[in-house]
Amino acid sequence: MLLSATPPPGPRPAQQARLYEEAARHRGLTPPRTHPLASITWLGPAASNPALAYRMGGDPVHLAESRRWIEAAVRLPHWGKAHMPDHDLDAGWLLHHLSLAYRWVGDELPDGVRALLRYKLLLQGRRMYEFAVASEGRWWSSSYWQNHNWICYAGLATAGYVLGKEEWTERAKDNLGTVLDLMPDDGSHAEGVVYWRYGVPFLAIHLDLLQEAEGIDWWGRGGFLSHTFRYRLHQLAPGFAFNVDHGDCHDRRSGHSAGLYYRLAAQYGIPQAQWLGDLASGELLWQEAAESGVRPGILPEAYLEYLWYDPSVAAARPTETRAFFPDLGLLAARTGWDDDATLVSFKASPGGGHKAWETSAKHRAELGWETLNQGHHHPDSGSFVLVSQGAFLAVDEGYSNRKRAAHHNLLLVDGQGYADEDRYHVYKDIPFERQARQRDVLAGPDCGWAHATAEIAAMYDPALGVRRLDRTLVFTPSGRLVLLDLAEADTEREWTFLLQTDRPTEPRPDGGRLIRSGAASAVVRRFAPLDAPVVSEATEVEANPTSSTPELRLTRTLHTLRATTARSTQALFLTSIVPGSAPAAAERVGCEEGQGVTFGEETVLLSPVARRIRTAAVSADAAAVLLGTDGSAPYVVAATRLVLDGRVLLDVPEPYTGKVG
Hints:
Blueprint: H1 13-24, H2 43-57, H3 60-74, H4 89-105, H5 111-134, H6 147-163, H7 166-182, H8 193-214, H9 224-233, H10 258-268, H11 271-281, H12 285-291, H13 302-308, E1 322-325, E2 330-334, E3 343-347, H14 354-367, E4 384-388, E5 391-394, E6 411-413, E7 437-442, E8 450-455, E9 466-475, E10 481-493, E11 495-501, E12 506-507, E13 513-517, E14 520-528, E15 534-543, E16 554-564, E17 568-579, E18 587-588, E19 595-598, E20 602-606, E21 613-614, E22 618-621, E23 624-628, E24 635-644, E25 647-659
Antiparallel strand pairs: 1-2, 2-3, 3-4, 4-5, 6-11, 7-8, 8-9, 9-10, 10-17, 11-16, 12-13, 13-14, 14-17, 15-16, 18-19, 19-20, 20-23, 21-22, 22-24, 23-24, 24-25
Helix pairs in contact: 1-2, 1-13, 2-3, 2-4, 3-4, 3-5, 4-5, 4-6, 5-6, 6-7, 6-8, 8-10, 10-11, 10-13
C-alpha cells in the first residue's frame, strides 16, 4: 500500500478530502532556512502528504508544495539539533516521509532536486544505520519495547526499500521480528496511550512495507498487533474524546490515530476500530489537533488514513465494558460508553510489563545488553484513574521527569514512595525481584462487577520492612468503587493513603470528602481508620516531554488528599468512592470476619488474605463476595464455599471466580 500508493479498492471521499486539506495546510508557512532548536519531525509529512495528493489527483499545486518542503529538509546539514542529531526521532520521521515522497513523485521533480533528495536520503540513512550498528545493546537500537526503536527502524526501512539498500532493510527486518516476538501478546503498552499512538503506527508502517516489498506477511507474528486495538479502546474515557493517562501522557487528548485504527480494522476485521477511525478523523479530529500536546499530531496522518482505509470493513460502536490485560496488570471497567458513564482503570506490574521485565533480564545476563528503556513507565502499580460524568475525578499525574509514587493514587510508608524513584528511569538497575502484580482478577465480558488485588509491597525500600501492601479494588455494576488496603511491616510505620484530584476536595458534614470537577462529582468515604488525620495540599509536577525541544515545559498542579495513620506494624484502609451528585449512602457492613461496604442494592464483602467472610447472612471461604439485591446471582472471587441466607450455593475443592448459580 505505502510504497505503491495503492489503497484498498472502493470509494473514500472523506479520506480524500482529508488528504487534500492536509496537503494544503502549510501553504501559508515559510520553510525554515536553518535548523530550529525544536523538533523538525513535522517537515516530513509536510512533504509527503502533498506528494500523495499529487499522485492521486495530479494537481501541480500539490507537487509544488511537496517540492517546497523537500528542498527545505534536504538543505539542512543535520536532521535533529538539540538531541542526537541524525540518530533519533527527527531523522527517523524524515527518512520515512521523504523516502515516500521520493518514491511517489521523484520522477516529477527537476533533476537537481531529485538528485539532491536521493543523496540526502542516502547520507541520512547511512548515518542512522551506522549508529544502530555501533550502539547495539544500548539505547534505541535494541530497546525493543520503545517508540524510538520502532520509529527509527521504520524510517531506515522505508529509505532502504526506496533506495535499494538491502543491508538497511535486513537489519530493520531482524529488529522488527524481535519486537513482534517480544511485545506482550495481550496488546498492552507500558509507555501509555500517548506513546502508543506516537509509536505503534510505525510498527504497522514497517509491516506494510515488508509485505509489499518482500511479500512477507508478519501481521500474525506474535499477538501484540492483533490485540492492541482492544488495549487502546479500553483506555478511552467515556465519550471517546479523552484517554486514561497512565504512563507519560502530555495531556488527556493526545490518544487517537485514525490511520492505525483503519489499518487494524482492515487487517484483523475489527469493526470497532473502523468505527473509531471514522470518529477520530471526523467529529473528534480538530479538537484533538488543537488540544494535543504531541507534535506533529494527528493531522499529518492523512496519508495513512487515505491508504489504509478499507471501505469494505463494517463499522460498529464498541459495547464491551470490562477488560483485563495480564502483562501490564491492567484492569479497565466502565458502566458504558456514553459521555456520562463511569470508568476505572487500575494497574500493577513490573517495569515495562511482565514479558519485557523477564526478557530484558535475560538479555542483561546473557548478552550484557540493556534492552528495557522504560522512562515513560511510572511508579504507579496499585494506582487507579476514575472518570465519571464527563470528567476526571481521581487523576494521574500525566507526564513527569522526576517520577514519584506520591504523584499517584497510592500509599506511602513513613512518607516514602517506591525505592529508587524520584528520577526519570525509575525501573533502571533495580533488583529483578522488585515486581508488582495483580491477582484474583474478575473482569468477565458479561460480568457487571470487576475486582483485582494489586501486590505492591516489593516496590518499597527493603529497609522499611514492608511484608505486605495489598490493594483490592472493586468496581460495582453501577460504577461505585470500594478500596481495601492491607499493610504489614516488621516495625511500626506511618501509612499514608493518597488521592489525587484536579481541584481540592471539600469536607462534608458526615466526615466524607467531595470531589468536584466541573459539573461532575463523587463522594469519598473512609470507613477505616477513623482516627487518621486528613490534609489536602497542592502537588506540583513539571516535565520536559521531549529532549529535542529543551525549552518546552509542562507543568501541572495536583490536589492531594492525604490520610496518615499513627505508627503501627499493621494498617487497614477501607474506602468507598461514589460518583454522582446524589450518591447512594455507603455504609460499613458488620463482619465477624472480613470487611464489607454496602450501598443498599450493592454489597461488597472482602477478605483478600485470610479468605474468610462471615456476616449475619453470608458465610464464605473466599477473597470476595459481591451481592446485588435485584435478584441477580452473586459473584465470588477465589471461593471454595459460599453459604447465603442458610443456603449452600458453592462448595468446591479448587478456588472459583465468577457467577454462582
